[in-house]
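QA checklist item 7 of 12: single-chain prediction sanity check.
[x] sequence parsed
[x] length recorded as 181
[x] structure emitted
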Amino acid sequence: MSSVQSAATGEELAAFEQVYRDTRQALLAYLHRRAPADAADLLAEVYLVAWRRRDVLPAGEQQRLWLYGIARRLLAEHHRTRADHASLDTVGEAVLTPWREGRDGETPRAAAVRQVLAELNDTDRELLTLTTWEHLSTTDAAHVVGITAGSARVRLHRARRKLREHPSLRTLLDEPSPHLA
């Protein structure tokens, strides 16, 4: 038995394993969308932090949100470290890198969405992606980013309006879909 396992009770270990089983796929998807090459390593780090802080692990649905918060902070640190190693001028550039870099085989629609997301501020982008891609409620997304639900609703409304009005997306939305032709 490893030292990590011996320090925990069997009940504690079983409860943590259940948290892992319940949340790993959603967290991996979240991390993969933001740092594809390092998603698995970041996921392992999320659970390492969670294990070390298991004494403050919330109960119920709050566990998932707490883990998203850990993942968000680890991603920010990951991008800052990446910026330091790449000698970028600002930390902001590092945070935007996943939104600015093209992907192999990326469709014009995906490139336009990525471009528009890069133009949003960090909080608005995170709220939008948490509610759209991760299917979190506005209240849950607000909890993850550390703002009130009311502020999140206002910020999401404004961000969605920016998206609707953005010329790159308007052009794409006006084009007929190749799937419908």
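[x] summary fact logged: The first helix runs from residue 3 to 7.
[ ] second reviewer sign-off
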